[in-house]
Design brief:
heterodimer; A: alpha+beta; 2 domains; four-stranded antiparallel sheet; 7 strands; 24% strand; extended; B: mainly alpha; Ferritin; two-stranded antiparallel ribbon; two-stranded antiparallel sheet; 4% strand; disordered N terminus
């Protein structure tokens, strides 16, 4: 139910043509997240933004606060997919099979994106099967690593936004009502709290 | 393909696929193979996948509206933090799913406008009212519980970008669901007044929860493109049965009564009688139950539900309130730390 003030404001706005600025044709950015120090960066999704500053802001908002995250890497989609580019260091990301996420494999010095893929195969993939490789020049990859820049803060208790923050107390409450076996069966369809 | 595909597209109108390519595609999918954005896919697959992702995205952002309205009235600081996080998660799911749909060929702006002007739809269950805090508890337990069952099967679909999104979404849904259980259990262990409030909200949400999975299966369900191409991996009736098997005994264990209800045009229950069909078949392990009121379901889908107008009005209001942000972005704003 809406409050009266909300209802009145809405009633006023709901007439006439739908006004909107055409927000079209923004670049697509790819975002990688790291769950804890030492973990590799995994591709977590994409977003649309007109420039790097906003891409970084959206990345923090959308991918850096809903789940545990200590570092974000952001770059334009084209930078990951291009076979061209200049001689420099590239971060390379491997998708092992269709459907899985691109994982950071390491960095290579290469003359362009195509060469970076070859080096990635030689140095990291070797004889293993893989689906696709992304290679992003280091100069085009923006890394957000300082804890001050992250929304997810290890210093405050964030357990209220994780399933495991409730697991114990919920289990206790169910056990007071139902036999352990029934609770087990009911909970066997819970989703894992990891991704 | 046209960039403005919408839910009205008849897949028979789609470009007919090259039979050789189609056969190879179907064999790949049937063998458990996955499709990525750059792979060849039949026009009808792209259209259906786009519709599915767009409808899902619409549902995420409309679904957060009734919940958002309760943030200021949450009963404790912890509940307020969790509800704020849930609403923010849901809108984030919308952004991820719009991104998937956008990659399949329809612009973000067209999708947001089509939602507000009624060209496209969102999930029917969000057209029902939430008059008390207990409705927020029941939505998080039953509707998120139903969504998890459904999305768990969608995560085994055939389209790579969509299933990756499903997996990330499901992890956040796991929190919404656990929080919902905690809230329902808190109410059902509380005062008589709390229990009554929970029962009344349960009466409002049980019907929409079992209707959540959509209409009954058609005889050729598995031959239809959505299942043949593994966009869906379980039928509506299979999911509904699974839901009732899990939630009916759990609800009863908390002391809730599963009623068959009649509602007025505002969605408020006018009569509630215990479901006469509710019974466990010991052999199959399946619970029998009274089917949702399908006349009501189709009436609400066609736009005549208790809250259709209110939800769209609020979505439009939110969209218009965001106009200054879109303008600021369009006029080349960048913050000083553009490094």
């Amino acid at each position: 139910m809406l409050s009266e003030a909300r209802s009145n404001a809405i009633a006023k706005s709901n007439s006439g043509e739908l006004s909107s600025s055409e927000v079209e044709g923004f670049q697509v950015w790819e975002v990688f997240t790291q769950k804890k120090d030492g973990d590799i960066h995994l591709h977590t999704g994409s977003l649309s933004a007109p420039d790097l500053a906003l891409a970084k802001m959206f990345a923090r908002e959308h991918y850096g606060q809903d789940q545990i995250c200590v570092s974000l890497w952001v770059g334009e989609r084209d930078s990951f997919k291009s076979l061209g580019g200049d001689k420099e260091t590239y971060e390379v990301f491997v998708q092992k099979d269709a459907g899985s996420r691109h994982e950071h494999a390491g960095s290579v010095d290469a003359i362009n994106g195509k060469d970076a893929r070859e080096k990635c195969k030689e140095q990291f993939i070797k004889d293993n099967a893989f689906c696709t490789i992304w290679a992003c020049p280091l100069s085009k990859l923006s890394k957000i690593e300082s804890s001050i820049d992250m929304i997810w803060r290890e210093t405050t208790d964030q357990s209220y936004r994780l399933a495991k923050g409730y697991s114990k107390v919920v289990r206790q409450k169910w056990e007071a009502l139902r036999a352990t076996k029934a609770v087990d069966k009911y909970q066997s369809e819970d989703l894992e709290d990891t991704f | 393909m046209s960039a403005s595909a919408n839910v009205e597209v008849n897949i028979n109108d789609c470009e007919v696929a090259d039979p050789k390519k189609l056969a190879a595609f179907e064999a790949h999918v049937a063998a458990g193979g996955l499709i990525e954005s750059n792979d060849w896919m039949p026009d009808a697959y792209r259209t259906l996948m786009l519709r599915m992702a767009e409808h899902h995205a619409n549902s995420e952002i409309v679904g957060s509206l009734p919940e958002g309205e309760w943030i200021t009235r949450a009963p404790s600081l912890l509940r307020k933090l969790a509800l704020t996080a849930k609403v923010q998660d849901e809108v984030g799911h919308g952004q991820m799913l719009y991104e998937v749909a956008q990659d399949l060929g329809k612009s973000r702006n067209a999708m947001l406008r089509d939602l507000i002007t009624g060209v496209t739809k969102y999930h029917n269950c969000f057209n029902y009212p939430c008059p008390t805090w207990a409705d927020i508890c029941m939505i998080a337990w039953l509707i998120d519980g139903a969504a998890i069952l459904n999305q768990g099967t969608l995560a085994h679909g055939s389209f790579g970008p969509y299933i990756r999104t499903m997996r990330r979404i499901n992890m956040e849904e796991a929190f919404h669901f656990k929080h919902g259980e905690d809230m329902v259990l808190t109410l059902m262990r509380g005062t008589e007044h709390q229990k009554q409030m929970a029962q009344e909200a349960f009466d409002r949400w049980w019907g929409p929860s079992i209707a959540f999975f959509g209409p009954n299966d058609r005889p050729d369900e598995r031959e239809r493109p959505a299942m043949k191409w593994r966009m869906k991996t379980a039928t509506n009736d299979e999911l509904r049965q699974k839901f009732v098997n899990r939630f009916a005994p759990a609800a009863m264990a908390t002391g809730l009564v599963i009623n068959v209800c009649e509602k007025d045009e505002k969605g408020i229950v006018t009569s509630a009688t215990p479901d006469p069909l509710l019974k466990l078949d010991e052999e199959t392990g399946n619970w029998s139950f009274t089917q949702p009121d399908w006349d009501e379901f189709f009436r609400v889908i066609r736009g005549n539900g208790p809250c259709n107008d209110e939800r769209l009005a609020l979505r439009r209001f939110s969209y218009e309130q965001g106009e200054w942000v879109r303008k600021a972005i369009l006029h080349g704003s960048t913050t000083p730390n553009n490094n």
